[in-house]
Amino acid sequence: SMNFKIENFYNPHLSLGASRLDTILSITAALGEGGTTTQNNMKKAIIFVLDVSGSMDVYTKIDTAKLAVRKSIDLLDEDNYFAVIAFSNNARVLVPLMSATRGNKEAAHYSVKMLRAGGGTQMSNALLAVLDLISTFGDMMTHVQFVTDGQNDRADHNHLEEALDRCEGMFQCNCWGIGVDWEPQELKNISNRLLGTADAVPNPERLEETFRSAMAKAASKGIGDVRLRIQSPKSIRIVTIKQVSPEIVDLSKLAKRIDERNLDIPLGAWGEENREYQIAFELQPQGDGEEMMAGKPKIVFTENGQETVMEGDRIVAAWSSDVLRTSRINEQVAHYTGQEELAQSIKEGLEAKSRGDIDSATVLLGKAAKIAVQSGNEEVTARLKKVVDIIDADQGTVRLKASAGKAEDLELDMGGTMTIRKRSSKTI
Fold this sequence. Notes:
- This protein is 32% helix and 33% strand.
- It is α+β, with helices and mostly antiparallel strands.
- Strand 4 (43-51), helix 1 (61-75) and strand 5 (81-87) form a beta-alpha-beta unit.
- The longest helix has 25 residues, at 331-355.
């Protein structure tokens, strides 16, 4: 079975009158004695959802996407389930949910080959079609690979939000934008709400390897529905709930009140891995030397029908007039504050660039380059280097690349929230 370990990082000493306590929770999952990642015999399904609107016909995008889906189907183990849904204005199930036997794969190849592109883009129908497919299958860990090349039809905006409300917690969804005509915020919204990832695949040829690594990740997950539960006194408000590693995702919309003392935050499926979260508490300030429990984190999951709760240490704040104690910023908290600043600088820098405000874009992306290089965030640095030439990282001096187009901007936009973990200073 899975074992979860929760470590709390924060400075417990608050200055008199201070009411906010910032904490980083580092959560690590490891297999218990003799466990395997596929224990608890939960069925796993990979569902490919493919945009077949008219624009997919351009630059052979549809052919490349069809090939990527077919090659991915061939990689599936026989005990996996799979399905393929195509959508434009409406969604249709090309391949119903079935086990990945040789015969089923061959039938799927034929159906995918016959696909033609045409029509508009209504993403809500695609997500609801997934929900329909899995609703009859009982307990199943479902990972959706959602591929689009365009923006959702305006008329579908509210339907999409309603569909997301219904799909939340039912399956996880990765979003891949191919080409350069899709809307980053749209895909981030879907993947954040459905606890997946979203990224740009400007070159459709790379879709196959993208699928391959996403499927390997899905295969490594051993437990489906993991939740972080924060138990707090009634007087305390939780004001920030974010995943900060491996990338920054605001989870506050997903948090659900269990009762007046307990808040549950869904974390999706887990394998052996580490993720880090920022939780900020708002407390009622107390007198010098007084203490107050802000919260106690727990991990809750169901395995073989049994609910398991693993408890972390209490998070306790103490008020003090000792400035030396209260002015220290915890290293983990400082590190992730920096990574958030990096993400924000990229977002604002790209917005300035798209408005044609080159001076602001250069300053903001320069600031981003400085933080990315100094913190050792290689993934974001590599994406930045496609948009700017870094002249002096320490000074944050960059020059916008004339050659950088929409594809490079989109890659940076989607990757700007990726973070690097704080290396423990304890290690020698």
